[in-house]
UniProtKB/TrEMBL annotation:
PANTHER family: OS11G0428700 PROTEIN (PTHR31065:SF56), PLATZ TRANSCRIPTION FACTOR FAMILY PROTEIN (PTHR31065). The lineage of its organism: Eukaryota, Viridiplantae, Streptophyta, Embryophyta, Tracheophyta. InterPro entries: PLATZ (IPR006734). Pfam families: PLATZ. Residues 154-205 are annotated as: Disordered. It comes from Cajanus cajan (Pigeon pea). This is B box-type domain-containing protein.
Amino acid sequence: VLVPPWLEQLLHTPFFSVCRIHADAARSECNMFCLDCNNADAFCFYCRSSRHKDHQVIQIRRSSYHDVVRVAEIQKMLDISGVQTYVINSARVLFLNVRPQPKSGKGVAHICEICGRSLLDPFRFCSLGCKLEGIKKNGDASFALDGGNEELTMDATRKGSVSSRQQEEGLRDGSTQDMYPATPPPPASNARRRKGIPHRAPFAS
């Protein structure tokens, strides 16, 4: 099977709406997707605990208002070789769908075969959606995992981690939460301390 049956559903699913059942809870954003359910709609953290406990579930995150998934999660399900990866907030990710951008200018070394988006590294596609279109058009790629493809996947993700742009906007679980909260800096060791109450010198008589 070149394309798993759940992939197109994943790419067309809207994420980050508020769960109707757990709307008042702290983690009520629908950013989970189940690979085992036929009616694969997005659901929240609490729905996962109650209705998808023993299922294969992946979590969708967000970068610059676009949906991404961690490479560490998705490469267990798909061969992602050929798809550009990025390092955002210390996590290696890839985009689910194509992102609109102006046409690539002259001098761009690498572009997506499907949408023409400029790429950082010599990959074929900018997203899972573009790889899916490439498979439909040309049939010279696959999402099926096997020993050889898995090795290619690891090699591709290593390349992405070396030259990815650290300046990309922060990766988020939702619209307000960073995946890795910033660590506060340690207090300066030479911080000035108050020595006590100052005293005036006595007036000379």
